[in-house]
Design a protein that fits this description.
Blueprint (H helix, E strand, L loop, with lengths): L9 H13 L4 H11 L4 H13 L3 E5 L4 E5 L3 H17 L4 H9 L5 H16 L1
Antiparallel strand pairs: 1-2
Helix pairs in contact: 2-3
Length: about 130
C-alpha cells in the first residue's frame, strides 16, 4: 500500500477549504456546502473526511448528534507546505524558477506585479 501524502489531494483540499470557511463542521454541513458547487455523494464526503483525519489534517470531537470536525492546521500553514512540496518536486527546491515564471507570466496584471515588487522590497529590508 502506498504511504499517505502529507499534502492534501485536490478533493481533500476542497473539503479543507470548506472547513476553513465554515469553521468546525459536521460531515453533513460540509456535504451541503460542497453540493452547492457540484454533485457529490454524502458517503464520499464522509470517507474523505475520515482520510483527512487519519492524515492529520482534521481533528474530530463529539458533537450533540454527530462528530464535529475542525482543521488541525491553519490554512496558511497547509498552503505553505503545499507550495514547498511543489517547489521541491517541480523546481528541485529552488524558488527562483518559480518567481521568474510568475514575473514573466502574461496573465499577471500590473497591479499584481506591483504587489510582488512591494513584497520583494519589504523582504530585502528584513
Amino acid at each position: 500500500m502506498k504511504p499517505s501524502k502529507p499534502v492534501p489531494t485536490d478533493q481533500e483540499l476542497e473539503i479543507l477549504k470548506v472547513i476553513w470557511q465554515l469553521g468546525p463542521s459536521t460531515v453533513r454541513e460540509v456535504y451541503l456546502e460542497l453540493a452547492k458547487q457540484r454533485k457529490i455523494a454524502y458517503t464520499t464526503v464522509l470517507t474523505m473526511m475520515g482520510v483527512l483525519e487519519r492524515k492529520g489534517h482534521l481533528k474530530k470531537s463529539h458533537g450533540e448528534r454527530a462528530y464535529v470536525y475542525r482543521a488541525a492546521k491553519p490554512q496558511e500553514q497547509v498552503t505553505a507546505g503545499m507550495v514547498k512540496e511543489f517547489v521541491n518536486r517541480v523546481f528541485n527546491g529552488s524558488t527562483q524558477p518559480l518567481l521568474v515564471h510568475l514575473v514573466e507570466d502574461k496573465g499577471i496584471g500590473a497591479e499584481e506585479l506591483a504587489e510582488l515588487e512591494s513584497l520583494v522590497k519589504e523582504r530585502r529590508k528584513k
